[in-house]
Amino acid sequence: MPEALRQLFAAIQQRFNSLQKNQQIAVMIGIATAVALIVGAVLWTSSTPYKILFSNLSDKDGGAITQALQQMNVQYKLESGGVISVPAEQVYDIRLRLASQGLPKGGTVGFELMDNQKLGVSQFSEQVNYQRSVEGELAKSIESLASVEAARVHLAIPRTTVFLREQQKPSASVILTLHAGRVLDGGQIAGIVHLVSSSVPDLPVKNVTVVDQNGNLLSSSIDANNPGGLDPRQLNYLRNVEHGYVKRIEAILEPIAGKDNVKAEVTALLDFAETEQTSESYRPNSPPEKQAIRSQQSQESINGEDKNAAGVPGAFSNQPPGNATAPITQPPGQRAGATATGTTPASSHKEVTTNYEVDKTVQHTKQPVGTIKRLSAAVVVNYKPVVDKDGKSSFKAYTPQELAQINNLVKEAMGYNQPRGDTLNVVNAPFAGATEPSGTVDKLLANASANWQQIFKNVLIALVILYLLFGVIRPAIRYMTAPPEPEKMPEEELSAGQRAEMEAGDATRMQEEEAAQALASYADNLQAAKDLAKNDPRMVAGVVKAWISKEDE
User: Fold this and answer.
1) Is the Cα dihedral 253, 256, 260, 263 positive or negative?
2) In angstroms, rounded to a whole number, what is the distance separating the alpha carbons of residues 361 and 253?
3) Bridge partners of 297?
4) Are 205 and 197 contacting, i.e. CB atoms less than 8 angstroms apart?
5) Radius of gyration (Cα) for the chain, nearest Å?
6) Residue 273: what are its φ and ψ, rounded to 5°?
7) pLDDT top residue among 128 and 450
8) Average per-residue pLDDT in the chain?
């Protein structure tokens, strides 16, 4: 131990021993209180935060999970409502370790029913187990929502049939138990309806019924909230489109006008109609040299008769005719070359039928959903700040040329299309009480407003620690390390000699203090003279010269 520290401890111990009993007890209580407050503040700041591991647990699952946590030597807290909390840094690791053990099992059974199928089970039992599994999985998915405490799903799936006219669509009923003070809006109810509808084949949205624990029909509010027939996805898409155009306009104008000096609003008209179109078009005939032959048929006849075989099919009709013979003698008056039967000379006739391909185009077009039919934008730009010659800042309106440039920038940013019917209105007007704070101040204020609880906590702890250090511990240390004052005896008990000694000691002490003050003042004057001689030797030389001249006189 260093010598200085040993001397300090010895002085503190000596001072503590010189105190009275009640003073010693008070000092010990003060030091113990200060140490306890410091330790409490440290423990408060360094306490392990807890996070919810599971909620809405049944008694069976809660007992199994707590037993598993005890085996893993993990600290946990039990709260009302079946809530188990563990240290925040271990929550995900513990969830994975419990999931490997199959915990929590949950009161709702899903596809676990299909794991242990018995041999020889009937088709009806398999269908029932499958339907129960789907109902359980849907209930688990719905219970994962923050506002839903419990859910039950009932499916009515008809038997499949080969007759189309007798086929029926399935239906579903959902019973929700909400947390106290929680409600579901139209978008959340529509999400539950679409979730159930998408999980069962051929289940239309209109066949899904949602009821809360009080018997209120919730699914009827979907159409009431959307009188235009738009579902929440379409409304969300519409808001995103409008917000995107607003961001584009503000991003292109903020470098010119400054932050918070531009306000824009965009209204978009979208077409969510699903359109499919099929068209057939025939082009004019192609040139002869580019025509394609589809089919060709030719027919040739002799003496007006068809050259091809005719008559009843058979051996005689399909055989070629025999050799022609002519009589040796001709009857008088008959021409040469004529046959005995009086037939005329043979004549041929040929017909050819050719079919050409005709150009045909079949086009199937499906129009995109959510196309923009019209955009309407309104932009307000604040006056620009101007600094005059005297350094005073003021606001001034933009010139017509500058407004025209801003108008063109906005048109390019929003994709302005006049034939489509888009409209744009840019106005330059002063903002009411608009001031432009610095970005650093905005960030600090935003951070302070977001974390005011943590900041208040840290400031309170710092004030307590400072008070303990400078208000309790430091005065106690000063008091304990101060040299003990000599005990004064009552004046009536002092003798004349002792009084004289005390007066002489007081006089000597006063003389010593005066001599010390004089020495200190002499040393200060000497140091000042040295500094003056160093900084301004001419002045010092003049003073010395004046002194010498006075001595000569």
Assistant:
1) negative
2) 49
3) 353
4) yes
5) 54
6) -75, 135
7) 128
8) 77
Cα 345 off chain centre by: 100
Contact predicate 170/155, CB 8 Å = yes
Distance CA 443, CA 437 (A): 10
Is 311 in contact with 319 (CB distance < 8 Å)? no
Q: Are 420 and 268 in contact (CB under 8 A)?
A: no
Residues in the chain: 553
Q: What is the DSSP letter of 366?
A: E
More confident residue, 129 or 495: 129
Res. 113: pLDDT tops 50: yes
Helices (H), 144-167: none
3-state secondary structure of 430: coil
If you ran DSSP here, which 8-state letter would residue 183 be given?
-
pLDDT one-digit tens code per residue, 170-203: 999 999 999 888 888 888 888 899 999 999 988 9
How far from the centroid of its chain's Cα atoms is residue 50's Cα?
Answer: 24
Query: Higher model confidence: residue 351 or residue 8?
Result: 351
Q: At what angle do helices 232-257 and 186-199 cross, to 10 degrees?
A: 130
Instruction: Give every CB contact of residue 225 below 8 A, 6+ residues apart in sequence.
Output: 185, 186
Q: How far is the first Cα of the chain from the last one, in angstroms, to the nearest whole number?
A: 69
Q: Answer whether the bond into residue 104 is a cis peptide, omega within 30°.
A: yes
| pTM, rounded to two decimals | 0.40
In the numeric block, the tokens 């009857």 are attached to: 331
Task: Quote the CA–CA distance of 174 and 188 in Å, as a whole number.
Answer: 14
pLDDT reported for residue 247: 93
Strands 50-54 and 83-87, by their bridges, are: antiparallel
Distances (CA, A) of 521 to 371, 508, 513, 518, 528: 94, 20, 12, 5, 10
Nearest CA among 242, 240, 234 for reference residue 414 = 242
pLDDT recorded at residue 468: 76
**Alpha-carbon separation of residue 353 from 65, 295, 327, 348, 442 (angstroms):** 89, 8, 42, 17, 89
Place of tokens 């423990």: 43
- What percentage of the chain has pLDDT greater than the value 90? 15
The full DSSP string for 457-506 is HHHHHHHHHHHIIIIIIHHHHHHHHSPPPPPPPPGGGS-HHHHHHHHHHH
Q: Which of 130, 132, 50, 60 is nearest to 102 (CA)?
A: 60
Please name which of 134, 147, 138, 184 lies closest in space to residue 56, comparing C-alpha atoms. Answer: 147
Query: What is the average per-residue pLDDT within 50-79?
Result: 84
